[in-house]
Write a structure and sequence with these properties.
The protein is of the alpha/beta class. It folds into 2 domains: about 190 residues, Rossmann fold (3-Layer(aba) Sandwich), CATH 3.40.50; about 150 residues, Glycogen Phosphorylase B (Rossmann fold). Helices cover about 50% and strands about 15% of the residues. The strands form 2 sheets. A 7-stranded parallel beta sheet has the order 3-2-1-4-5-6-7, with helices on both faces. Strands 10-9-8-11-12-13 form a 6-stranded parallel beta sheet, sandwiched between helices. Strand 5, helix 5 and strand 6 form a beta-alpha-beta unit. Helix 1 packs parallel to helix 2, helix 1 packs across helix 7 and helix 1 crosses helix 17. The longest helix is centred in the first third of the chain and has 19 residues. The protein is globular, with a radius of gyration of 20 Å. The structure holds uridine-diphosphate-N-acetylglucosamine.
Length: about 375
């Protein structure tokens, strides 16, 4: 019987932890899981809504860390997490993704000699100005078991000198959640609530510091959105970081009068209902590049790089950067042809069974 702590901290973690927790509960003779929530994300819309939609119980332990600078937030998570690990003495700590909670908890365990498994290991944007890239490189370098979503990630890890016996290609656990919930999300009335019909709108998400923290960049993106919204309404669930910047840069009236519909951050099922019926998705999120790839929804990524190149090679994703004209041209192309130039194949092992393989690998290690 393996005692496992599953760490969740920020919004993109919850849909990765839920299928692993459920699978471990289906195997009570093999696993005793508990969920530790660091509190990196704490708003009801950024956190609680996901526990409800994913039918996860409240976390066993809530560290209540909240927002702060990167150094303070990471240090506070470490300070709060260490006594939990010492008290519970797990056989494994499982961390997911690339947020500050991921590196903070992995580092605590590495120092205590407690085994860490990193889910979604090996992704690299090769852009070290991204806080997530630093978190990815550091977490992978100190984890005992590196579970990957795609074979390019295995190659990245090998190139960094990580021994092959630590690396296992298990597929994409976030897609387990997607496939499990896509039908259930049909009961969401979000499209009707907003007054939109399938295929007659675009969905936008934007929250990367590199896109929203500087006025010049954000204004350029906003100009592109205004142009696109002339042709197709854009629904924009606004992340708290982005909302603060929209106010600061005085972009709210400009965007809304052009047809960009700004709404509160949405829960997992409402958001799935929304993007799964969109004609076009514009985003700087990592997860949404993968979700649109699986559903075959054209996705324009407003970044100059991606740590998820397989979504371009096999999926529907196109990198368009942050230049106004490039974004508009790419969007018009999709509106005219209905697709991006990218492919529409589902990457290998994005099949809804990654949690099973993750549990098998933890047992086998
Ligand atoms: C974090 C992750 C990012 C992930 C994103 C998803 C890191 C380094 N970044 O970025 O990889 O894509 O989450 O959302 O871990 N805030 C609230 N309520 C909340 C959470 C945040 O109001 O529940 C506000 C706070 O003002 C905070 C700001 O959002 O300062 C940023 O939050 P933070 O967790 O620091 O980073 P994110 O930008 O959300």
């Amino acid at each position: 019987m393996l005692k496992v702590i599953l760490v969740a901290g920020a919004r993109p973690n919850f849909m990765k932890v839920a299928p692993i927790y459920a699978e471990m509960n289906r195997r009570p003779d093999e696993f005793e899981p508990m969920i530790v929530h660091t509190g990196q994300h704490y708003d009801a819309a950024m956190s609680d809504a996901f526990f409800d939609d994913l039918k996860m119980p409240r976390p066993d332990i809530y560290l209540g860390v909240g927002s702060a600078s990167h150094a303070v937030q990471t240090a506070m998570i470490m300070t709060e997490f260490e006594p939990v690990v010492l008290e519970h003495q797990p056989d494994w700590v499982v961390v997911v993704g690339d947020v500050n909670s991921t590196i903070a908890c992995a580092l605590v365990c590495a120092k205590l000699g407690i085994r860490v498994a990193h889910i979604e290991a090996g992704l690299r944007s090769r852009d070290r100005t991204m806080p997530e890239e630093i978190n990815r490189i550091l977490t992978d370098s100190i984890s005992d078991l590196l579970l990957t979503t795609s074979q390019d990630a295995d190659e990245n890890l090998a190139a960094e000198g990580i021994p092959a016996e630590k690396i296992r290609f298990v597929g994409n656990v976030m897609i387990d959640s997607l496939l499990e919930h896509i039908q259930i999300s049909g009961s969401s009335t979000i499209r009707e609530d907003i007054g939109l019909t399938e295929n007659n709108y675009a969905v936008l998400t934007l929250h990367r510091p590199s896109n929203v923290d500087e006025q010049e960049t954000f204004s350029g993106i906003a100009d592109a959105l205004i142009e696109i919204a002339n042709k197709l309404p854009i629904v924009f669930p606004v992340h708290p970081r982005t909302r603060a910047k929209i106010e600061e840069f005085d972009l709210k009236d400009k965007l809304s009068s052009a047809g960009v519909m700004m709404v509160e951050p949405l829960g997992y099922l409402d958001f799935m209902r929304l993007y799964s019926g969109a004609r076009l998705v514009l985003t700087d999120s990592g997860g949404l590049q993968e979700e649109t790839a699986v559903l075959g929804i054209p996705c324009l990524t407003l970044r100059n790089n991606t740590e998820r190149p397989i979504t371009i090679e096999m999926g529907t994703n196109v990198l368009v950067g942050t230049d106004r004209d490039k974004i508009v041209d790419a969007a018009m192309k999709v509106l005219n042809s209905g697709t991006t130039d990218a492919g529409t194949k589902i990457p290998p092992l994005w099949d809804g069974k990654a949690a099973e393989r993750i549990c098998d690998e933890l047992l086998r290690f």
